[in-house]
Amino acid sequence: MALMRGVAETGFEAYLAPEDQSSVIAAFRYPKHPAFQFEAFYGRLSELGIVIYPGKLTTEPCFRVGTVGRLSPPDIDALLAALRQVLEEMEAVCGVRAAS
Fold first, then answer.
1. Number of domains, the chain
2. How many whole angstroms separate alpha carbon 78 and alpha carbon 59?
3. Residue ranges of the chain with pLDDT lower than 70?
4. Is 100 exposed, middle or buried (0-12, 13-18, 19+ CB in 10 A)?
């Protein structure tokens, strides 16, 4: 799935193993970077027109991305670009991996 691969390339780790991943929502752990602050991350993404959801399912800090509805490759590209932009603005770029 392009979303999972792209988010992993920005340095986020999926909360669930691929075989347990839902087709309608994906959860990602917060990066272990001292500059990462979820509230600022969430707010800045919202300003860019991207809405994510706090992960309220576990005690581990995570956030969720909804994938239900009419999403297209350009929608996923916009999400990934916004994630990269906000992490760079926060100076919280962590473990960005080259695309394989």
1. 1
2. 29
3. 94-100
4. exposed
Can you give the residue range of the structural domain that contains 49?
2-89
Residue given tokens 């992993």 in the structure block: 8
- The model's pLDDT over 8-21, given as tens digits with 9 standing for 90+, comes to 998 899 999 989 98
Indicate whether 94 belongs to any domain: no
Angle separating helix axes 73-89 and 2-9, nearest 10 degrees: 10
The verdict on residue 22 lying in a domain is: yes
Residue 11 counted as domain residue: yes
Q: List, for residues 20-34, the tens digit of each pLDDT value.
A: 988 899 999 998 888
Hey, what are 94's tokens? 């962590």
